[in-house]
Design a protein that fits this description.
six-stranded mixed β-sheet, five-stranded mixed β-sheet, 9 helices, alpha/beta, 239 residues, globular
Amino acid sequence: MKKIALIFVLMVFAVSMTAQAKDVTLIAGLSLPPYIIEDSNSGIEYDIIKEALAKKGHTLKMEYVPFVRVIHDYPKYDGAVTINEASGAKGQYSDVVITYQNYPISLKSKNVQIASVQDLKDKVIVAFQNANKYLGEEYAKVVAENPNYTEQGEQVLQVKSLYSGRADAIVSDINIFKYYKKQTTDIDTTAEIVYHEVFPGTDYKVLFNDAALRDEFNAGLKELNESGRVKEIIDSYIK
């Protein structure tokens, strides 16, 4: 009888868990490969979030909007990505999903010396679009005074500027750089490079409206990290 009772309890628990499973709709800014790739509903960040939710029986649905609308519109959905507390948005923040890490990147053969943001003032730099808004006040001031500083919206062209020698350094997130390097086949990208450690990393999370859903997501995310699955996802896009 005890065995039958235990089986019954487990069945009820399983049904209860299934009943709680839901489609989770998150709002996101437009494509930022390799983190969010709108056309294919994929990307490093997308896959991590999808698999963490799936660990608890949930299905991810992503709604894409211009970045400026994410903060305003997220209360209409289950939550938002890519986001952190610095946004000022209120809600239930998850554990860290991914860390964006920007670097000045140079060819080792050029022997470019960059130990601080100030060292960018006299070099030919090609940065990602709006880098002067995202990388801090000191960076914005330094590059504003550098006549050889430009920003490039097509980040594959950054890669080409680096390996062709037209830039002393480019400024890019490491995973974005590796993603576009992987796709660049019309020039030689085998030269050794240097990542100059100048900028702090930026942690990004998921903002949920419901604390219980946030906790379930965190539990799934923890499983992915402990199993090594997060690293596998990242490597699948950049290696």
